[in-house]
Amino acid sequence: MWEASLQGLLMVLEPVPMMVMVVGIVLSTVVAILPGIGSSALIALCLPFAMTMSPPAAIALMISIHAVANTASGLTSSLIGIPGSSASVATILDGFPLAKMGQGARATGAAVWSSVLGGVFGAVLLTAVLPLLRPIVLAMGSPEFFMLTLWGVSMVAILSGKAKLKGLIAAGIGIMLMMVGMDAKSGTERWVFGQTFLWEGIDLILVSMGVYAMPEIIALAMSGTSIAGEAPKMGKGMMDGVKDCFIHWWLLIRTSAVGTIFGIIPGLGGPTVAWICYGHAVQTEKNGNFGKGDIRGVIAPEAGNNSVDAGQYITALGFGIPGSTTVALILVALTAVGIQPGPAMLTTDLPLTFSVIWTLTIANVIGGVGALALADPIAKMTYWPARVIVPVIAVLCILGAYTANYAMTDLYLLMIFTCLGFFMKQLKWPRAPLLLGLVLGEPMEKYLWLSTARYGWTWMYRPGVLILLLFIVSTAILLPMFQARQKKAEKIALREAGVDEEVE
Amino acid sequence: MRLKPRSIFTLLLIVILGFGLLTAASWPLRASILVLTIGSLCWLLAVVQLFLELKPHHEAVSSGMDIELAEDQELARNPLQALDIWLWMIGCIIAIKLFGLYVTIPIWTFFYSFLHGARWWLALILALVCVGFLWGFFDYILHVPIVDAVFPIEEWIRG
């Protein structure tokens, strides 16, 4: 195995693959900070070039683009509140308040570096679990995948704060919005109203822009100030953000492990994992100020969403099952250059598998350093007055939304969702559960249908399902109850000690 | 019992959800089962929410973890500013439909910045940056198909 690992490293370090990797990193960084244009679009654009390359060079190009996408997209989430990709939406919840407090550099440092470390951790874990893969993945079926989506939905309880009822309604609306379009399993048009552009469903990025970014732009325009307001200048906080990743190392490792494990499961992907990791941080970390600018709220989703990549390659390379559209495109490219995913990737072609792992690691580190260099100019945007930043961000949002289907209808939908987001914000409805519902709606329905079609209702008694049900119950009910009891006990203790709660 | 804006919003959600459920009722079972299950639950919760809001002395609680780019700008406190930005946004979409992206984006960016207090040269730079991004990245590199305008001024200019 060590010999194969060394061979893989030598393949990556050859001049041509290295040069191609750098090109991939640069392209991916540029695309990742632009909302709407995901890494899958870039990979699709690069496919014709990759198909003409040698296997190591094709691996270097495709994997580096995929590896860096999540690292750089956290930049804009933290600094200007616009997610470069849907996997970075959860980062906004705490990254943005930090930028608003003038700690944009710290948030960026933490976002980028946790992403890098998450990616590297994922790659290391991928190496460690290579021999154990087959039985684990094969033990999971659609019922277990369905339960995992339910586990994600249970995070609504955490994301809704005190407005739990509104949060549940918002999540339900999100799930229903995801069902708009042509239902593949029955051929039914669901809420399409004769509009062909709705057949493909509603684009997640478009809804994110409408519900999250645009209402914030409107609020900023109404306030007439800058994003950071009167907050002090950023100073040299970027390294503090990097240090934060090491201070909260245990959280970083946990969320990276969660990301890698969930990445193995096809269809869940970075956005779901980012929310699960965020929820995990909120539940397990003490003295949290989540949602108002807690650095751990940046570290957890960023580490999780980037470590997913490694997990996705486990199933993609080992079994030829792509976990996402992006990985499916990468598989197309790899197959075109003669790399056949399957058991051979874990035996005779092991050096190629290791070259994937090494590319993931090296691209993450180079991409992270590059993203940190870019952070400062982007961070300065948080001090621009509204009259400057509002039109620029509005144009970015409009163009980002336009990329959903390249049609005017995207912009009409954007305005409808902006209206929804605006009133939700004004009337204090939580918007995060709506997005969670949107992300999980599609896999939830798919796996429920597959489970019922394949096993009837007996799938409910599968051991994996029951174990996951225990996790869900503990996440949604027992842990919040335990936390509430703990908080109550703390209050009583403070009162008995004569400490003023407000001062505390 | 006074109907406040938040209750009107909830009522609107109840009506939309109800309409969605009625529509879904006519779909085949395999397409509607999850929609009806989640939708009905959601509708019931929304009704409960409305009753809670209509109760006297009900206060809106924290919206949980949410992003806040700017301080909460309540509509009632800043109705004119809200109207101003909404008109600009809607105007931008209408202008894109009428004149296309290439004409609208720079003109909209320039006039928005300039009329809200930016110097003319700064507004011009912003307009050029936006149109440069549109042309360079969207058109030149990605070959994104640009939407056809009702009045294609750009094509008329090019001849």
Can you describe this structure?
The complex is a heterodimer of chains A (504) and B (159). Chain A has 504 residues and is mainly α. Chain A has one domain (2-490). Helix content of chain A is 73%, strand content 1%. Chain A has 21 helices and two strands. Chain A has a two-stranded antiparallel sheet. In chain A, β1 and β2 form a beta hairpin. In chain A, α4 crosses α5 (89-100) and α5 runs antiparallel to α15. The longest helix of chain A is centred in the last third of the chain and has 35 residues, at 463-497. Chain B is mainly α and 159 residues long. Chain B has two domains: 5-54; 79-158, no CATH class. In chain B, α1 runs antiparallel to α2 (29-54). Residues 67-71 of chain B have low confidence and may be disordered. In chain B, 69% of the residues lie in helices and 0% in strands. Chain B has six helices and no strands. The radius of gyration of chain B is 23 Å and the shape is flat. The chains are: A mainly alpha (504), B mainly alpha (159). At the A-B interface, α5, α10, α11, α18 and α19 of A face α1, α2, α3, α4 and α5 of B.
Query: Overall 3D geometry of chain B?
Result: flat
Helix-strand topology string of chain B: HHHHHH
Structural class of chain A: mainly alpha
Overall outline of chain A: globular
Largest interface: A-B, 86 and 74 residues
Compute the separation of the termini of chain A in Å. 55 Å
| Total domain count of chain B | 2
Q: Secondary-structure element sequence of chain A?
A: HHHHHHHHHHEEHHHHHHHHHHH
For the largest beta-sheet of chain B, the strand count, sense and barrel status come to: none
Which structural class do the helices and strands of chain B define? mainly alpha
Report, as a whole number of angstroms, the end-to-end distance of chain B: 64 Å
| Structural domain count of chain A | 1
